[in-house]
Amino acid sequence: MCDNHLDGEWYRFTGMAGDAMPTFCISENHCGTHAPVWLNGSHPNESEGIVQRQACASFNGDCCMWNTTIGIKACPGGYYVYQLTKPSVCYHVYCGHFYDICDVMDCRGTCQDSGDCVCNSGTVLGPDGQTCLDENECEQNNGGCSEICINLKNSHRCECNKGRVLGKDGKSCEDIASCQHNNGGCSHICVSSGEFYECQCPRGLVLADDKLMCQVPVLCKPSSIEVSVPKDLVGGLELSLTNSTCKGVSNGTHVNINFNLKTCGTVINVVSDKITATNLVTGMPKQTPGSNGDIIIRTSKLLIPITCEFPRLYTITEGYVPNLKNSPLEIMSRNRGTFPFALEIFKDKDFDEPYREDLPVLKLRDSLYFGIEPLMHVNGLETLVESCFATPSSKNDEILKYYLIKDGCVSDETVKQYSSKDHLAKHFQVPVFKFVGRDNKEVFLHCQVLVCGALDERSRCAQGCRRRMRRSSEVEEAGHYSNHLLTGGPIVIDLEE
User: Fold this and answer.
1) Are residues 320 and 462 in the same domain?
2) Which residues form the ZP domain (predicted)?
């Protein structure tokens, strides 16, 4: 489910929705959705009136991957109402929770029944005088934690930042001083050198970005993903991917597995500013021929998660025609992987035959057929050509530029878009033009392409043409990428009749 129909109205939780919003982290895949939204703060008293609190959506092990601000008011009838804002993305749902109805705690000796409810430790009495709400201990002095306080149901816990460990008191944090303490946090080998230490990996493994964990080398290429597992790690196991027909091949020192985004059970997801391709290498004991399945297993199962990351936003620069080599554009995403696109110039409106060897000579009355072509065809994704503009030189920052497409909208009424067999490809036709000036006989195109999840109805790709755009978040997102430009051509405009 997704609460995208909400838009700042006031709501009360009742019936099967529980009594109030939970004030502790709800793990993902609860409350009928992928990313449940919980209240990161305490409920107000009636005298406080309307208060503002943070609401967090938990996903992928992060209790507050997304957040928003909602209004809350304690009502005279002993309940709460919530002013709920529309979630920024799907799938988010605001959670309700059944809180405990308190009992008067047993008395020892003579007890005068005052009729007042008493709540157990870790809870506080709600405004109705009967419900025991969770107490957010982290709001008071950070729960006594020196660094990170995590509120739990009826309790809390302290955590430390990366590279530090929790002290014996369960509240303070200490530096991982050396290899003597928890192996320095290293997954494999810890080497001390005076006051310093570093993590190292066995032969065949590489150190991850956190400089602590050793991982199997994964090479993310435009057309394939290559995994190389050291044979010492494999032992006598047989390696395969999620699709067990995709098996590893030994070269003597390593077991190699090659696959692409479309094969072997690879799962494609669009998460925030990147596209992720995931698979799982599984190692199982080999079955001896003639054993009829009755074998003795002395080796444990091996599981190696494989992830390649690709950026969502690309800038492609090309002349009217590709160069003779027709090189594809490959953009590195944090050195994790590439997702290739090329800007092709076609001979006709069938968009089947691009110019390869011979450079075309076009007159001003001719039509120019061009398209954004993916070099890897993957289901579950879609593209949006956010902008295409022309310049008289290969520089995309030229002052003299002419937009054909801007903000996903056609800017020049002569531009015609064609449907494509491939959902990632985009095809266009425009009359040939040149820039004013005797010396301007060349034209270069520059296109910006965004990749989204095909099922995300609220993605930028699904919105299509949007002339008045809120640019701040998108510019910030685009700043994560290193946009490499592919320059080719140019075409010479034949001005003679």
Assistant:
1) yes
2) 213-468
Who contacts 439 (Cβ-Cβ below 8 Å, separation ≥6)?
none
What CATH code is carried by the domain that includes residue 191? 2.10.25.10
Biggest CA pair distance of the chain: 113
Type of residue numbered 446:
H
Q: CA 76 to CA 440: how far, in whole Å?
A: 76
Task: Give the pair of three-digit tokens for residue 188.
Answer: 């494999």
pLDDT tens sequence across 282-318: 877 665 554 443 333 334 456 777 888 877 776 666 6
Domain total of the chain: 4
Contact call for residues 424 and 268 (beta carbons, < 8 A) = no
Alpha helices for 271-352 (secondary structure H):
none
pLDDT at 71: 94
Taking only the tens place, the pLDDT of each residue in 350-375 is: 888 887 666 667 777 788 888 888 87
Place of tokens 């003579």: 110
Backbone φ and ψ for 423, nearest 5 degrees, come out as: -65, -20
Residues 6+ apart with CB under 8 A from 308: 218, 220, 225, 276, 277, 278, 336, 337
Q: What is the pTM of this model?
A: 0.45
Domain that holds residue 269: 223-311
Residues 181 and 119 in one domain: no
| Alpha carbons 240 and 273: distance in angstroms, whole number | 30
Is 452 a residue whose pLDDT tops 80? yes
pLDDT for 50-103, tens place per residue? 999 889 888 877 888 888 899 999 998 878 999 998 887 778 889 988 776 665
